[in-house]
Write a structure and sequence with these properties.
The chain is mainly α. The chain is 72% helix and 0% strand.
C-alpha cells in the first residue's frame, strides 16, 4: 500500500496579507539617516514657508501636498523609496505646521499638545495591535495596516515637534541642551535592544518618536537667530541644505533597491 505524500503546499497565514511585501521602509542604517534628515528638514521648511508667504496659505498648501504625497505612496502597493520618503517629508513639513498652528493660533501650550498627541498615539497603537495583532513595520502589507502606520507617523511627528519646543522654550533648556537630551534618550532603546534583549517593536517606535525632537532641535538651533540662542543661518538656507541632503540619501537608497 502506497504511503500518502505529505502536502508541501505553503500554508495560508491566519492574518490575510495582500502581497507579503512590506509597503514601508524597514529599519536600516540608511533608513535612520533619511529619517533624521526628514525631521530636521520638515522643521526648517515649515518655519521658512510660514514666514515667506501668508501662514494660512502655507498651511493649506502644506496640507494639499501632504495629501498628494500620501496618495502617491498608498497606490504603490510595495515599498518604493521616492514615493515613501516624499510622503515622510510632507508629513514632516505639515506635521510641524499642525503643531505650530495648535500653539500659535489656538493658544495650546506645548505640554498640552504633547500629552494630547501621546494619548492619541497610545490609543492608535492599541487599536492597531488589537485589529492586526502586530505593530511590526515588517508586516505593513495591507492597505489597512499602512493607513494605521501613516496615522502613527503623523502623530509621532506632531508629538515630537511639541516635545522639542517644550524642552527648548517652555522649559528654557535651549536648543543645544535639547539636542543632547534627546540624543541620549535615543540611546536607551538602542542599547536596550542590542544589549538587554528589549523587544524590537517597542524599541523601534520609541526611537522613531525621539528622532523628531532631535531633528527639530538641530534645525531650530541652526536656523534661529542668535538673539534666540540659535546659530543664525536662517530657516531657508538650512531647509535647502537639508532638502538636498535628503534627496541624496534617498537616491542612494533607491540605487541599492532593485525594485525601486
Amino acid at each position: 500500500m502506497t504511503e500518502p505524500v505529505a502536502d508541501r503546499r505553503p500554508r495560508v497565514p491566519a492574518t490575510p496579507i495582500a502581497s507579503g511585501v512590506s509597503r514601508v521602509a524597514l529599519p536600516t542604517v540608511g533608513f535612520w539617516v533619511a529619517k533624521a534628515l526628514s525631521t530636521a528638514m520638515g522643521e526648517s521648511v515649515s518655519d521658512w514657508s510660514t514666514k515667506a508667504v501668508d501662514p494660512v496659505l502655507a498651511v493649506l498648501a502644506g496640507f494639499a501636498l501632504f495629501v498628494v504625497a500620501l496618495a502617491w505612496q498608498l497606490t504603490r502597493r510595495a515599498y518604493r523609496p521616492w514615493a515613501y520618503w516624499t510622503a515622510v517629508a510632507m508629513v514632516g513639513i505639515f506635521g510641524t505646521m499642525a503643531a505650530d498652528v495648535a500653539h500659535v493660533a489656538l493658544g495650546l501650550p506645548y505640554a498640552v499638545s504633547f500629552v494630547l498627541c501621546a494619548v492619541l498615539l497610545g490609543g492608535l497603537f492599541a487599536l492597531w495591535k488589537r485589529t492586526e495583532g502586530t505593530l511590526d513595520v515588517h508586516d505593513v502589507t495591507t492597505t489597512r495596516r499602512e493607513l494605521l502606520y501613516w496615522a502613527a507617523v503623523v502623530l509621532t511627528f506632531a508629538m515630537g515637534t511639541a516635545l522639542g519646543d517644550l524642552t527648548a522654550t517652555t522649559l528654557h533648556l535651549g536648543y543645544v541642551a535639547s539636542i543632547v537630551l534627546f540624543a541620549v534618550a535615543i540611546l536607551v532603546p538602542v542599547v536596550g535592544y542590542r544589549r538587554f534583549g528589549w523587544g524590537a517593536v517597542p524599541s523601534f517606535w520609541t526611537a522613531y518618536v525621539l528622532t523628531r525632537p532631535v531633528g527639530a532641535s538641530v534645525a531650530d538651533w541652526l536656523g534661529k537667530p542668535v538673539r534666540e540662542h540659535g546659530v543664525g543661518l536662517g530657516s531657508g538656507p538650512v531647509g535647502l541644505v537639508l532638502v538636498v541632503a535628503l534627496v541624496v540619501a534617498v537616491a542612494v537608497t533607491a540605487r541599492r533597491d532593485p525594485t525601486s
